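Dear support,

I submitted the protein below through the web form. The confirmation email said the job was done, but the results page showed an empty box. After a refresh the structure appeared. I'm attaching both so you can tell me whether what I see now is the final result or a partial one.
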Amino acid sequence: MNRLRIFMFAVWILGLLLLPVGGIEQQQAFAAERVAANSMDVTYEVTPGDPSTVVDIFIKSAPRNLVLSFYEAPVDLRKSIQTITADDGEGQSLRVSFSGHSWQIDTRGAKNVHVRYEISNVISYQGGLPHKKQGNEIAVYISKEGGILDGRYFFLVPIYGAIKTIRVKWNVPLGWKVVCPYEKEGDYFVVPRITQNIRVDFVARQGIYFGLMKYYSEATTASGVKVKFGILSFDEDWEFRSPNAQTAVETYVHQAAQAVERLSKFFGESPYPLFTFYSNFKAEEWVYPGTREIVGGYQYWPEGRYSELIGHLLYSWISFWKGISPVVADPMIAKGLGEEYLGSKIAYEITGDAHYLGQLYSYYLVYARSYGTSYYRKVYAGGREIMIYYKGAMLGLYLDHLIQQETNGKKSLEDVFGYLYRTYKNSGHTVTLVDLQRAVDKVTGVSHADLFRKYVYGDQRIPVEDFLDTYQKAFPTFIEELQRDFFKNYQGYTIPYFVDVEMALSLAYHLPFGILCESYDQQFAEYVRGHYDVNALTEQNVDEALSYLTGQCVSGFFERWQNIYKGVTLKEMKEWLMGKTRPGEQTSFAGAQKRFLCPLADSAKAYLVPDVILAGVPTEVTLHIVDGEWLTDNTVRIGVEAWTDEYFGQMLSGVREHLEAINEGNGSYFEGGYIPLVKRQGEWVGTMMLTLPEAMKRIAIRPNENAYDEE
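What the results page shows now:
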């Protein structure tokens, strides 16, 4: 089992891990600042070397009491600083002393100060949760070939005094590419102001790496946000060793850009001008910690984990860690309704992949199993995981359904999140469940006091069963995804998942990690095969085995799951334990209608209205061209390529010189033609009819002169 992939599972990180260390005084220094004319301009120059890297800091308008520290400073992080010196910019040395977690510099009244420090090229990562520790994780890794780093472990930052600007220059060899979450201006990268504190915007962003790239791609969304992702030449990440790795990187950038654009639309903006993504980096024995770094830069999530990418991207707008995104909210809102529910919902709506609906149903199963038991309020991994992950997801599903019902489909939970963001952006206010209630009331124009009293502030069971049918039908596709992505040996059966849930509730340190990543089902199977005759197995035997393995009294397994899921039988349990593959195992989903977000080759030059299209429904689509270089005699070529396992007929109509072809070798089906255009308000606009068959898996649309080759 490849643990690299398993350790990518998203976890709820304790908020304390992201707070600056060093006492109340230092934390207050990082509070909201007011920028004045005499505020500091801070410039960094980074020069990678061997065996250490030199960082020069040039500070204009320095305060007399100049104190430098790391944003997050474990007590032994000072050992990573090998030397540190300071001068007044004119060659006059200044005294540097260390106290607590900070370096104090006696500026002697100098307004321009230069600080130089040498920092180790390899710095261990010292955060995280116990169940995720691997022992070989690094926060900084720099070699002769390039590097990757977490800014909190690398950059010393002035603690006191307002900062006006922060710039970074990377002195790297010719040909190296620098990827970081700052805006390029000439030779420098300028830190954008996003929150109330530019220090946080600087060091709390992830996705900083540099060197020669063996694979690289970037894109710009329709709203102008950049997305970048590269694989360093010396990165040993196993995800990118195939001959199609460059295509995989390009596809991932495109998917990430779709997610950013979707989130930007309902939040009303993107507070970030660019997003950087990084691999699950590995070099020598070292690995970069990935999912523990949440805000600002994001690690690669493999195919099938798109919901986690979207859910974590959402934290760039609303998170439950104070001060690192424009809005901080109760974890039930940011994580439960946001990451868990909206992440899955939006992933399904963009991709049409039904396993994301099945994933939401899996949340229901855990919620229903634990409700009314001692597990419901059990603290896992230091947090209220069932309340936040599972109740939160079900509350999101319930509220979303209710809002759409009350507004005749005109509003949804996304509108509530947009309202919360616009109302509380950079206000310093922590959004509470009461604020959520007010937002729902505002969006719908209906009072929900009684509903919130029962299901949000109280613990009455959330009544989602009436609209779970579509999600339950998709559950087998979620089981298939677990087999692919988490290496589960379920053989197409659902019953091993229920075993995993039963055992994880008692044994897991972190509940979602335990259900998805631990091998409880195999422990159970091995125990039962070794102690019972599987052919003669009884329901009581199953209860006995679970009770022995968990150390808890686990009785009524079949009755309990039959009431929750239906169709849970001893016969299925025996077949699975005998190693049989489930007969007629389903590999496709015929439940809810697929919806596709139709991508364009370059969304900065063209876009579609609508951009989300229902499969099987002929839809009039308007193509808007914003770059005239694609035009030929007031027409533009359109190319539509779809991936499917079968031929499904014509997709395009309303185009001239219609071209239709199918490549059966890779399941790719292509159509093209010319669309007449008219100019409206600075854009060229044309319409076509587009029908996306239900058998389709994904689609690409290219409106340009190279949309297809002449035959």
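Response: this is the final, complete result; the empty box was a page-load delay. Residues 3-302 form a domain with the Immunoglobulin-like fold (CATH 2.60.40.3650).
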